[in-house]
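Backbone-to-sequence.
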């Protein structure tokens, strides 16, 4: 898609990262040259969204290891192991992070007996291929989603699962952006997405830039617009899908799924197969990140909670597979997902 801003981009001697904490008021890029700065960028949500986090982590390993090529092979591989383990501590819920780091680890092991220069080149190629996979997955997800949607539909989405969260069209936003290019037009309601307003700041910004008809609502308006008959389908992204089809996404998604079920509105999860974690049996086993109280008490510079009041701030919740109409992946659509159907798609050639 022409004019699309890439949130993470490999520049050979550094990684170019869009600082998403400044959107929509400022478009500013960071030049990342080591793993510690990449760790901070992921933790502080400068780079965010499950696929983009994985891409960023892969490049974080590659850029860090450039500094150690001249060391002994033993030291190089010791540092590689430490870097991968370090980046894995940045955020716990999005499985793409660990998927990408596992690819980097496998590459390091495969080239352990080669020179550092050969291993380094292989690591950089692996990181680039991770980005290419996620980019192609976005297109496939959009294509598959369009088979479920019709021109003129009004869609509701929660949080941000567009190009800013991936490396191309996005997951949940992919059919909207692909559709726009093909004269298939949707109206979109974007939940504001408390407490960090990813829907209002990022989704609305992306869709508006692309010329998609988008309306922002606060999270607690979703039920009302459904009751008014304004929503034809809900489509959201995901940070991890368990083996049985339960799906973790930004906090508030579970509420949207329950509301959709009550109003007989299709509820779709969109995500690449890399987001499916077959080692996590159910949604109850997905680790849920808890973030700082300050994101709620004074998230945008003004205190809105009295001093001394306790705060609970989980970043994600889990939608049980029973509430999911279908999971839209790059390998196909999993209708009424369960353990057998999820495994079938994951294992497909």
């Amino acid at each position: 898609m022409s004019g699309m801003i890439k949130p993470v981009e490999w520049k050979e001697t550094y990684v170019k990262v869009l600082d998403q904490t400044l959107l929509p008021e400022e478009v500013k890029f960071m030049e990342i040259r080591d793993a510690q700065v990449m760790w901070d960028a992921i933790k502080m949500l400068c780079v965010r969204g499950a696929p983009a986090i994985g891409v960023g982590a892969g490049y974080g390993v590659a850029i860090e290891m450039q500094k150690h090529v001249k060391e002994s092979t033993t030291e190089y591989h010791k540092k590689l192991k430490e870097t991968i383990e370090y980046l894995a501590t940045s955020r716990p819920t999005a499985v793409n992070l660990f998927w990408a780091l596992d690819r980097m680890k496998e590459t390091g092991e495969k080239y352990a007996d080669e020179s550092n220069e050969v291993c380094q080149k292989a690591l950089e190629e692996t990181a680039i291929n991770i980005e290419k996979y996620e980019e192609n997955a976005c297109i496939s997800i959009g294509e598959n989603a369009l088979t479920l949607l019709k021109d003129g539909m009004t869609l509701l989405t929660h949080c941000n699962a567009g190009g800013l969260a991936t490396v191309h069209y996005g997951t949940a936003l992919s059919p909207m952006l692909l559709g726009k290019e093909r004269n298939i037009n949707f109206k979109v309601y974007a939940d504001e997405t408390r407490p960090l307003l990813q829907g209002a700041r990022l989704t609305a910004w992306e869709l508006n830039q692309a010329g998609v008809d988008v309306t922002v609502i606060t999270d607690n308006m979703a039920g009302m617009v459904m009751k008014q008959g304004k929503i034809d389908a809900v489509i959201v992204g995901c940070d991890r899908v368990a083996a049985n089809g339960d799906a973790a996404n930004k906090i508030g998604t579970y509420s949207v799924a329950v509301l959709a079920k009550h109003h007989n509105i299709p509820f779709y999860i969109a995500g690449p197969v890399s987001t499916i974690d077959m080692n996590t049996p159910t949604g109850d086993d997905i680790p849920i990140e808890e973030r700082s109280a300050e994101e709620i008490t004074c998230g945008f510079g003004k205190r809105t909670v009295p001093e001394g009041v306790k705060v609970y701030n989980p970043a994600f919740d889990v939608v049980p597979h029973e509430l999911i109409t279908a999971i839209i992946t790059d390998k196909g659509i999993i209708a009424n997902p369960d353990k057998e159907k999820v495994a079938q798609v994951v294992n497909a050639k």
